Amino acid sequence: MKDTLITDYFVNTNAIVKKAVEASQADIMQLAHAISEVMIDEGVIQLYGVNHDIALSMELGFRAGGLVQYHIIDNRHLSLREIVSLEETLAPDYLQREDIAQMMFDMYNIEANDAFLIYVSTEVVTSTLKLAQIAKEKGHKVFIITNKHAIEATDLENAQSLYELADLIVDLNIGYPDLFFKVNDVAVSQVSNLVANMFAQALTMEIYTIMKDQGHEPAVLWSMNVPGADSHNRELTSKYDGRWNS
What we know:
By secondary structure, this protein is of the alpha/beta class. It contains ten helices and seven strands.
């Protein structure tokens, strides 16, 4: 029974990923070129997502085999730095507050040549939309990776507002809701983050290739189990002191 479930799961998942990649490949390549331009210009890609949507930031930011020029904007840092209280963050409407985005933007050293990559798989909360608005007002490029079916179903008005702000949009091209596998007639297992993480790794490889082809040496982090990784990574990240992981 277990072998059948596992096999069925991978068959179904592979079909979804294949369809998503085929539908989004051109957009992924366009985003890879856009991010490459930012990195060649010594810019940092500011990653953002809330709740489960921080998954894409974690897949790209400070990962072995990943690129250095990513920085994770994390709304939890507001309470860590005592900008807002822990009690405030526990309020059910916390992420719908209009002042959160500006506090997050001000918390880091974001420079003029930086760009934003925002991941929204289910709902465009107010703080996410406001952060995109602030970024655009300050002249930054805003890239979006999203599940259009989901955000249009949950909040069409905010979804359209986010689209208008985006320089580029990459759609996951998956259904909504994204619970896709049934066990005993109960839908289990979500697929949004799986597809998004595949897109993230594809971006990494394409960005690396584009930068190399243009004569640049992409800054790639080594795994800590590689001899010399500590000094290698420290040398790469020191260039972005005060803005990278600030």
